[in-house]
UniProtKB/TrEMBL annotation:
InterPro entries: Q_salvage
Keyword Hydrolase: yes
EC number: 3.2.2.-
GO BP term, example: tRNA modification
Family: Belongs to the QNG1 protein family.
Keywords: Hydrolase
Pfam families listed in its UniProt record: Q_salvage
GO molecular function, one term: hydrolase activity
Species assigned in the record: Carpediemonas membranifera
Record field: transmembrane: none
Described function: Catalyzes the hydrolysis of queuosine 5'-phosphate, releasing the nucleobase queuine (q). Is required for salvage of queuine from exogenous queuosine (Q) that is imported and then converted to queuosine 5'-phosphate intracellularly.
Residues in the signal sequence: none
Catalyses which reaction(s): queuosine 5'-phosphate + H2O = queuine + D-ribose 5-phosphate
Designated name of the protein: Queuosine 5'-phosphate N-glycosylase/hydrolase
Length: 327
């Protein structure tokens, strides 16, 4: 099955006005990734080595992954500061605040990863799960609760109440699984229109597939015949990482927009600049992956982990932000 995300990405890239690809930097990054893999720094085992991720998969892991990826969006406040959650004596921020919140709920006896439970989850419970030491409410709490209820009802009605059955129904086809999520659940329907043509990005649907693959080390429920057809997951950090590596080039107009005081890189959902950042990011990473002989999913994991290690002063290319439920 062809990946509609990749088709959309190259279509956008051919017409992009504000984002372009530097081919020499593609080659340099590909060589860096090949070198990192030879040192054991770029593989699925890295996923399980993260402190908050399941280190050993079991029958519950697929449902854990699904819930994390249902809720994996918008972990920043309007002033640019990240959402924080305290767990096991540490404060976790951004994406890791989500994982910490899910694990904390499970530890406290809330069956947050059980579809029959979250099919009726309340907004109040959602707020309690994301309780922060800052006292600030997590953005889009109502939308998160609604996304869980929608997914839970879908699983209960059509898949006997477990995400494993959804995965098995796709018969090891990664693109089919991502497309099924994107077409069946509104919170995964990450779509847009660019120059009059519908385009798809499916960020969370694809990362759900990749997380299944990585969490199971490509085995059992995480075994896919075409995992290489999944693209990178175009969010905030991966485009920024590619720009910092010189792979993506932003126009002066776009850079000025991202650097505008008071706006903090905020772009309207679905605007041409946002579509170009995401679409060209996907195409560029595909070129890197092909050159390196690697999957785009591992390229994504590598870039995301790398950019998160950089100090603030090293982030010389600004990150765009878009408020919404898709990433």
């Amino acid at each position: 099955m062809e990946n509609p995300v990749l088709e959309s990405a190259y279509w956008i890239t051919e017409r992009s006005k504000h984002v372009s690809i530097d081919k020499d930097s593609v080659k340099r990054l590909a060589a860096e990734i090949v070198s990192s893999k030879s040192q054991g720094l770029c593989n699925t085992a890295v996923w399980g080595s993260h402190e908050l991720n399941p280190s050993t998969p079991d029958e519950t892991t697929a449902d854990w992954v699904f819930v994390v990826d249902i809720l994996n969006f918008s972990f920043w406040y309007d002033d640019g500061t990240p959402v924080i959650v305290e767990y096991r004596g540490r404060v976790w921020s951004g994406y890791w605040s989500l994982v910490a919140a899910i694990n904390k709920a499970l530890d406290s006896g809330i069956p947050i990863t059980t579809p029959s439970y979250y099919a009726t989850i309340t907004d109040e419970t959602m707020a309690a799960v994301f309780a922060s030491p800052s006292g600030r409410l997590c953005p889009l709490l109502k939308e998160r609760a609604a996304a869980l209820r929608d997914a839970g009802c879908w699983l209960m009605a059509e898949y006997d109440g477990t995400f494993r059955n959804v995965v098995q129904s796709c018969e090891r086809d990664a693109v089919r699984l991502a497309s099924l999520l994107g077409e069946s659940l509104s919170s995964f329907s990450d779509r847009g229109v660019y120059e009059g043509r519908p385009v798809v990005f499916y960020k969370r649907a694809q990362i759900c597939v990749a997380d299944l693959w990585a969490s199971h080390n490509g085995e059992d429920i995480g075994s896919f015949d075409n995992i290489g057809s999944i693209t990178v997951f175009a969010d905030y950090r991966v485009p920024q990482a590619l720009a910092l590596k010189g792979v993506l080039r932003y126009s002066e107009t776009l850079l000025a927009k991202l650097n505008t005081a008071g706006e903090g890189g905020l772009l309207e959902p679905g605007c041409p600049m946002e579509a170009e950042i995401r679409g060209v990011c996907i195409a560029a990473a595909d070129m890197v992956a092909r050159t390196a002989g690697e999957t785009a999913a591992l390229v994504d994991f590598y870039l995301w982990d790398w950019v998160k290690t950089l100090p603030e002063e090293a982030l010389t290319v600004p990150m765009h932000r878009t408020r919404g439920i898709y990433y």
